[in-house]
Design a protein that fits this description.
single chain; mainly beta; Rieske Iron-sulfur Protein; 4-stranded antiparallel sheet; 0% helix; dioxygenase; 2Fe-2S
């Protein structure tokens, strides 16, 4: 695993995601309570940025068509999306968020 610093934890809002680039991947960093998640910042339905959507109840909603994705698994939980998005391991260290984009938690290859 190769973790890279993505952002400060304090930069991640509680009800939306933060768009960051880690290595060559666009990643959405989201919080649900004390948990922090990282997923590919690209809706599998319409190829738009997920980080512009709302975060609630461990899901993120695509702003364009309303697809929702589970932050833990990347699986769609609401149509029209039917394919998952890549999710990545996250570590919080000394107030910073680190993401490993070389490893996916759900086996989905990032686009």
């Amino acid at each position: 695993m190769a973790f890279a610093r993505a952002c400060a934890l304090s930069d991640v809002p509680t009800d939306e995601a933060l768009a960051v680039t880690v290595d060559r991947y666009d990643v959405a960093i989201a919080r649900d309570g004390d948990e922090v998640y990282a997923l590919q910042d690209l809706c599998s339905h319409a190829s738009v940025s997920l980080s512009e959507g709302e975060v609630a109840d461990c899901t993120i909603e695509c702003w364009l068509h309303g697809s929702t994705f589970d932050l833990r698994t990347g699986k769609p939980t609401g149509l029209p999306a039917t394919e998952p998005v890549a999710t990545f391991p996250v570590e919080v260290r000394d107030g910073d968020v680190f993401v490993d984009v070389e490893t996916t938690l759900n086996g989905v290859t990032p686009a």
